[in-house]
Amino acid sequence: MRIALDIMGGDHAPAAMVEGALQAAEEWSDTELILLGPVERSESLLTGRRPANLSLKAVEEWISAEEEPVRAIRRKKGSTIVVGCRMVREGEAEAFISAGNTGALMAAGTMVTGRIDGIARPALAPMFPTLDGKGMLVLDVGANPEARPEHLEQYALMGSIYAEKVLGFEKPRVGLLNIGIEEGKGTSLIIDSFARIRELPIHFIGNVEARDLLDGGCDVLVCDGFTGNVLLKNTEGVAKAVFGRLKEELTRSPATKLAAAILKPGLKRFAREMDYKEHGGAPLLGLKGPVVKAHGSSDARAVYNAVRQARRFVQRDVIKGISEELQRLG
Amino acid sequence: MRIALDIMGGDHAPAAMVEGALQAAEEWSDTELILLGPVERSESLLTGRRPANLSLKAVEEWISAEEEPVRAIRRKKGSTIVVGCRMVREGEAEAFISAGNTGALMAAGTMVTGRIDGIARPALAPMFPTLDGKGMLVLDVGANPEARPEHLEQYALMGSIYAEKVLGFEKPRVGLLNIGIEEGKGTSLIIDSFARIRELPIHFIGNVEARDLLDGGCDVLVCDGFTGNVLLKNTEGVAKAVFGRLKEELTRSPATKLAAAILKPGLKRFAREMDYKEHGGAPLLGLKGPVVKAHGSSDARAVYNAVRQARRFVQRDVIKGISEELQRLG
Questions:
Q1: Distance in Å, alpha carbon of A187 to nearest chain B alpha carbon
Q2: Domains present along chain A, CATH in parentheses
Q3: CA torsion sign, A303 to A309 to A312 to A318?
Q4: Would you identify the family this protein belongs to, as annotated (chains A, B) (predicted)?
């Protein structure tokens, strides 16, 4: 299996990307990692290490985090993101991973790799941490801010298939994010989506409230891209703020610093549980090939996890599964 | 000034309501507290204490948290919530406070107290904690899930006036919740709302992302009721989960318990900062009279704070301020 990796996207690019790819190449000898970016950048970071299943593809252009996505992918047809999405479309790679500009990756995924026949909108589907450590797939978180009920219906279907095949959830519990658990609550978008999702051959558990998400009561959470994006960023923001203030308390005096030393192992474990990076990247579901968005702050370990995830995405034939289910439902 | 208080709403009703009212009556001799509920319940909790500025009004019906709001207020015209809203409309009280069924209070506020002329939809506007301790007013969080740009425009105006007059923010910074800070991001609702809000005579700072909310960069956050409700509940859920896991770590062993004892004052201070109850209740903005929703989990102190807030709501003539601004803008 060949997996293309954008070395030029993410806060710690290219070092973390190259290091993560090396770790992945060492772990999985059946997988060829193809690093997209300036060859001399990869080479200087590899410092002579070059497993047989790691290759470099010279790509001299990339899209920065600040660029306007659609304009960027139109102007930079030779950029890592566009090249990676094209490789997947043309079968030069079975999957593509990037930690770069999320909007550009979604746009290139849609316009270059292309949508599965019958899918109206792809969805970006990251994992959220839950207190039981299993995590929860949330989609969409921003690929499509202006959602319609048929989009949410397809998210539910795609999320259920992905959660079962890649994440290993048995009969994943799919919930619909709403402002109350009773049927009939919420906006007309949600009410109409509820009516459609309940007819799908999935394990739909109905409405779920934002208050209960971390308790792990659902495995796949369906929402429109605007709400999902707010949810994702708010969760990050609150967790970061709480940990920040906690750190302040722990370093306030010599006595609290002593207490902090005692608590350190437990707090570290906790911080790791809450860390998105442990869960790999976010698949762009609904495309003709596996495209994975790694977190912008990905370190080498996160890149390694994203490769593991992309491997399963390919091995479990998720895209064929989605296509077949769509055809079956007509 | 007369303030009516529903003693039958909230998780700790009626004890917390009666106790909070007593504290408020003792603090502000110029304010008459009128307790709505079964007189014998109030009397048994007062245990003989009866300040001259505290009176009891016999109301024998109330709406539980589980009841469907609109049906409940139609069927229970003699309930504490409906009676309180009617007292405000008829000038028998200058303000009404309830910690009961939020939907029922919003429905009764709209249908019984009534909207200010020119206001399309009232908004529920609670305070969110921020790390600088000042807090941020968020509206709407669920009074109106199906928002239009003209609603968000009015939220911005009402929120700015309330934040200035009641919360004491000078030239409150008003932000629009969006999935990116650039103009032109987000749904058509947000893009159209942005265009309207920028024309208002307020201090509009543009789009704000959910990630940055706790940093205290804005004083008034405008959003549709669905997104606001999700934001509120997610913030509560994440904070609760993090504190819960922290407690687990602190009580894991004798050593961590010792460490916990050292950290206790700091952690308590932090928990208090993050506590919604410190900030009083959420006004229902856009009604003809001050109606305040106290948090469902209100204790006596939260009720006392809600009274303080209702007093300012009346004293600073917020409703007149909103009406006049609306007329001025035509």
A1: 6
A2: 1-119+286-330 (3.40.718.10), 120-277 (3.40.718.10)
A3: negative
A4: Belongs to the PlsX family.
Residues of A in contact with B259 (CB under 8 A): 258-260, 262-263
Chain A residues whose beta carbon lies within 8 Å of the beta carbon of residue B234: 210-211, 213, 231, 234-235, 238
Q: Do B210 and A188 lie within an 8 Å CB cutoff?
A: no
* B225 at A interface, C-beta within 8 A: yes
Per-residue pLDDT of chain A (330 residues; tens, 9 = 90+): 999 999 999 999 999 999 999 999 999 999 999 999 999 999 999 998 999 999 999 999 999 998 999 999 999 999 999 999 999 999 999 999 999 999 999 999 999 999 999 999 999 999 998 888 889 999 999 988 889 999 999 999 999 999 999 999 999 999 999 998 888 889 999 999 999 999 999 999 999 999 999 888 999 999 999 999 999 999 989 888 888 888 888 888 898 888 888 888 888 888 777 776 667 799 999 999 999 999 998 999 999 999 999 999 999 999 999 999 999 987
User: Is A85 within 8 Å of A92 (Cβ atoms)?
Assistant: no
Residue A24 token pair? 């992945």
- Record the tokens describing residue B93, joined without a space: 């009280």
A258: chain B residues, CB-CB within 8 Å: 259, 262
Angle at A70 between CA A65 and CA A74, to 5 degrees: 105
- Chain A contact present for B236, CB below 8 A: yes
CA distances to A186, A260, B125, B259 from A257, rounded to whole Å, are 47, 5, 39, 9
A175's tokens:
């919930």
Report residue A235 CA to chain centroid gap.
Answer: 15
Q: Is B270 on the interface with A (CB under 8 A)?
A: yes
Q: Does A120 touch chain B (CB under 8 A)?
A: no
- Is B259 close to A255, i.e. CB distance below 8 A? no
CB contact at 8 A, B164 and B172: yes
Task: Tell me if the pTM is above 0.90.
Answer: yes
Q: How far is CA B267 from the centre of its chain?
A: 25
Tokens of residue B195, six digits? 């265009």
Nearest Cβ partner for B241 among A214, A227, A244: A214
Are B262 and A258 inside 8 Å of each other by CB? Answer: yes
Q: Beta B2-6 vs B95-98: how paired, if at all?
A: parallel
CA of residue B7 relative to chain centroid, distance? 17
Alpha-carbon distance A90 to nearest alpha carbon in chain B (angstroms): 32
